[in-house]
Amino acid sequence: MFTEGRGTTEQVATFLAIVRTRNFRAVARERGQSQGAVSQQLRKLEVALGVRLIKRDARGCLPTPEGTGFLVFAESLLRLNARAVEVLRTHRIAIGASSNIGIYLLQPYIKSYFDGCAGHRLPDIQIHQNPVIAHKLDTGEIDVATLEWWDNRPGYVARPWRREELVAIVPPGHPWAALPRLPSAALQGVPLLGGESGTGTGRILARYFGAQLGDMQIGMRLGSTEAVKQWVKAGLGVSLVLAGTVADECREGTLVAIPLEGEAPNKELYVVWRESLAADSPARAFGEWLAAHAVG
Amino acid sequence: MFTEGRGTTEQVATFLAIVRTRNFRAVARERGQSQGAVSQQLRKLEVALGVRLIKRDARGCLPTPEGTGFLVFAESLLRLNARAVEVLRTHRIAIGASSNIGIYLLQPYIKSYFDGCAGHRLPDIQIHQNPVIAHKLDTGEIDVATLEWWDNRPGYVARPWRREELVAIVPPGHPWAALPRLPSAALQGVPLLGGESGTGTGRILARYFGAQLGDMQIGMRLGSTEAVKQWVKAGLGVSLVLAGTVADECREGTLVAIPLEGEAPNKELYVVWRESLAADSPARAFGEWLAAHAVG
DNA sequence: ACACGTTACGGCAACCGTAAGGATT
DNA sequence: AATCCTTACGGTTGCCGTAACGTGT
Questions:
Q1: pLDDT in tens, B186-239
Q2: Quick one: B181 and B221 in the same domain?
Q3: B230: domain CATH number?
Q4: Quick check: is A244 in a domain?
Q5: Is B1 within 7 A of strand C by CB distance?
Q6: Could you tell me which residues are beta bridge partners of residue B273?
Q7: Between chains, do A51 and B191 touch, taking CB under 8 Å as contact?
Q8: Shortest CA distance from B188: residue in chain A
Q9: C-alpha A243: how far from chain center
C-alpha cells in the first residue's frame, strides 16, 4: 500500500488508470504489468466491493454509476497514502494557510526558511478558507497552518505569530487619500466592502468601533481580498484589509492605504500544529521557527 | 482492504489495535489471529513505511513519535475504507448539514423521510461549519449536504431548498418585544450579536440595510447561534437569526422574535450533492426529495 | 485479420499458525 | 516462574506472467 507491492492499493490505482485511459492494455503497459493482471486486479476489487465498477464493452470500457461514485474514494485513498509516506519517510512538509496569509504574507518566510536549509525540499503549500484549513489539520492533510482565526480546540498547539494591522484602502484621488490617519468617525455610514468570511475580522472591527459607538455599514461580502481590491480600485467603495495584503498596490500607487486613528485595530495571526507532531519533526521545526520570527 | 482479507489495511487495523491495547496478545485474540502474525503485520508495516511505529519495551509497548504521527492517517484511511463500502454496498447515506440547519431545521425532514421508508436504515448525519461541510463533500465523507451558503463550484448539483426568514430576537420585557414588526431604523446604532461566520448572513443583511442606508453595528461574533441566544436571553444585546432557530424559545417565552419591517431579509438554503452520485442512489433520492419538499 | 478483455495454468512470493527462543519482572 | 515479543519453519493462499480463447469491428 504505502510502497510498491501487490495489494489493494495497487488495485485501486489500476482502477483509476482504467477510468482514465479506458484501455486495459494501455494500463498494463503504463504499470509494467501483463494485461491479464490488470483484468484480475479489477476483478478482485469488484468482488471485494461487491459491485461492478467498470462496464466492459466491445467499443471501450466505461465506469458504471457505482464506479463513478467510487472514484472520489479511490482518489482520496491514494492521496492519503501518498501523504502518509511523505510525512513519515521523506519528511516533506504540508503547510496550510488561510487565504489572505497564503496569498500575501507567507512567501518571504517560506523563501527565507527553505532557501537556507539545503536539506529541505520545498513544502507542499495549500491555501484555502480558514475553516477548511482547520479541517485539513484534522485529517492530517496538512501538518502546520497559519490561520487568521483559531478556536483553541484540544489536541493542537497554537502560537501567536504576527499581529497585522487593519488599514483602510481607497482609490487614488479619493478625498481621504491625502490623510495621514483616518478618524474612525469618517467611516460612519460609508459602505464598507467585506472580504472572506470566517476569518474573525468582524469581531475585531466590532471591538474597535463598537466601543466608540461607531456606526458602520457593511456592504457586500465579496468573498476574497482580491475581489475587494478590484472593487475599491474601481471606485465602488472602500474597505478595511490587512496591511500586508495591499503593500504592492500602495507601492505602485493603484491603491492608497490609510492607517486608522488611535489604537489601530489589528488581527492576531496564529501558527497551529497537532500536538502529536514529533518534537523533532521538520513540520514542527518550521512552526516553531515561524513563531520565533513573530513580528509585532 | 475493503473487506476481510490480508493486506495493508489489516496491518493498519492491527497497528491501531496495538496502540489502543498496548498488548500484542490481546490484539491477536481480538482479531482472531496468532500472536506471531500480529508481530509480523506490524513489522511489515514498519518496513513499508521505513519507520519504527511502536517501541517495544519490557513493560509494555508505546507508539514512537512517528507512530503517533501516523495515527491520524491510520484512522483516516480506515474511516475512508469503511465509508467506501458503506456507500457502495450497504448504501447507507451520509448527510452533512451546516450548524444552524443541522441543529434546528433538519430533524423533521429526516424523521418523516426515514420513518416512512422501512427499507432505509438511519443515515449518518454530520454537523459542522458551512465550509467544513463543503470540504467533506469534496472528500466523499458525505454524500449530500444542506448548506447556508454555496459557491457554485463545478461538479456539484445545488438545488434551492427553503427560504428562511431572518428575525430580530430580544429578551422578554425588551422595549421592542411588543412591536408586531421592527422598523429597520430601530436597529441603527444598536450592538448586534453575530453568530457563526461563513454562512452568508452578512451579505444578506448588507443587501437589506445597505440600500436603506442603515447604520449597523456588528458586536461580538460569538461563533454559534446557541451562544447568541444565551447572550440575548441574558440581556447583553439583540441579534438577527434564522426564524427556525428560535421557534422553541418563542413558544416558551424565553425569547421574543420580531419580524422585520418591509421586505424581510431571508436566506436561501441549498441542498447539494456531487454530480457523480448515481441517478438512482439513495443519497440522491434523499436530496431530490428534500428539494421537492422545498418550503417557501 | 485485428484489437480487446477473459480465463486457465504453472511458478513464485507473501502470509499465517505453530512453536521454540531471549528478555524482563 | 510468568509474561511478553521475536524469530524460524512448514503449509497454504494469492498474485503474476504466459498464452490460449471468445467476441465484436
A1: 887 777 888 777 787 877 776 776 544 345 555 566 778 998 999 899 988 899
A2: yes
A3: 3.40.190.290
A4: yes
A5: no
A6: B144, B157
A7: no
A8: A215
A9: 20
